[in-house]
Amino acid sequence: MIDKKLDSAVKEIEDLFEVNDEFLLKATDEFINSMNNGLSHLSSTRQYMPMIPTFVTSIPTGKEKGLYLAGDLGGTNFRVCSVDLKGDHTYDLKQSKFEVPKDLMKGSTSDALFSYLASKVKDFLKEHHSDYDSDERLKLGFTFSFPVNQTALNKGTLIRWTKGFDIPDCVDKDIIELFQSHIDLLESKVEVVALANDTVGTLLSRAYTNNDEESNAHTIVGSIFGTGTNGAYFEQLDNIPKLRSLDVPKGSTGMVINTEWGSFDNELKVLPRTKYDDLIDSETFNKGYHLFEKRVSGMFLGELLRVTLLDLFDKGLLFTDLYKARGGSLPHRLAEQWQLNSEVLSYLEIDDSTDLKMSQLVLENHLRLPTSKQERIVIQRLTRAISKRAAYLSAIPLAAIVKRVKPQYENDNKDLEFGCDGSVVEFYPGFQQNILKAIDIINPLKGTNKKIHLRIAKDGSGVGAALCASTSK
Ligand code: BGC
Q: In this protein, which residues make up the domain named Hexokinase N-terminal (predicted)?
């Protein structure tokens, strides 16, 4: 049994995190509005999503061929890959992964960061392709998972950093130029020919591996639910008014758009808002931006749990004995920001052991936090409330894009599928099921017999970047 006062305080927080059907429908409509605004305006503001043109004008068929390199700077790691596209929906991949040193992620310089990235490309080539002796430079597609103002396949300036990166002198600089100059300094035979967001890569790689004759489904979205969240889809040129003033490759009928949906509803017209969300936003570098991401993605789920627990502690309802026993302190991983990883929440979420003994172990191991049974029950309830809200919110952009592209597929009877990547969607228990439940509520395919599928897209950013590179002339 839980103490009555604690129980009602927890209930109050659970209610704050509840989202209802009516909200899901309203938010989906608002998402479509925000897409339209972003597609009409070249300059990006807080009011609508950036909807960035990527200059990728076709979706792979699975027949693409050749050897390409890919670099991938995501949230925490830098990966270098070589991808041999076989032309039959398959590929061979070699890759190396490096954890980006924390001191390069913030407070450093763009030169320091890009010289590190270029050195890793060089190391990779030495290890895996020392026999490459053609005079032609290998083409590299660069997956750079931050908002970029892209003006050509190989041109784009950083709009702002997200996900804990903060290197001010990099903002407004051309990312490809920076990377290429450091690659040249190290005399590697590599040409950076394409800049791609990770979601664009995910869309392309899933479309390449998807044999739609077998799956009976078209890949319509590439999405990431990991440290951050975002999605890309293919839009008809007629629906992208802002492209009219830019150079669009001749003969194209549409273009992949990187929505940057992390920035959906920065004005909080429809999104749920709790004091915990406000607190977390105030702790971040990109305050006031990416407010959707701050409710959904892995970087923030643990932090949301941490601040709700601290609130209950402040009210004298949780960890009071522990605090006294420690002589007036809480374990630092609970007391300090960003110390609670979403992976920990995934264990708490599904614990069905007697007295939640598994959670006890996990909390001790990961947070050095001893707990009573009552405290573990509370922690599990809050974890589930936070993750369910995140998954339900994740359904909004996916359903909105289905509504949006539905007419493109009016004349065939294939299903529609999302290619998804990222630790949260791949590993968080129940996350995919909850997304699908919420999509069912929104029911974007009403009036058709088609179904929606969610597929995990492997190697999205590596293979996708290679595919982007393959489209460069
Ligand atoms: C970035 C996006 C990226 C997403 C997933 C967000 O924070 O703004 O560009 O696609 O994270 O990695």
A: 10-208
